[in-house]
Amino acid sequence: MPDRIELIMELKSVELTRALYRAVEPDNRTAPVGVTVCTRQEGTRLISTIESTGRLQTLLATFHDLIAALTTVLNVLESL
To answer: Is residue 64 classed as helix, strand or coil in its secondary structure?
Structure first.
């Protein structure tokens, strides 16, 4: 059974949510071996699920990378 982390973010607007989704959407296609990343948008909610059949460290590192990417995009967008 794979380990799993789910991140749910409630954002201010659909447009902001869409921008974040587009920024991390490539992660849905490229992830470390044994790891799957699925991010989807539901209105103003951004939902990311990371699953790993390998080491827990890889799962946590992927989660950390996702958080870093989302934080960077939010900081850029908020500065505009």
So the answer is: helix
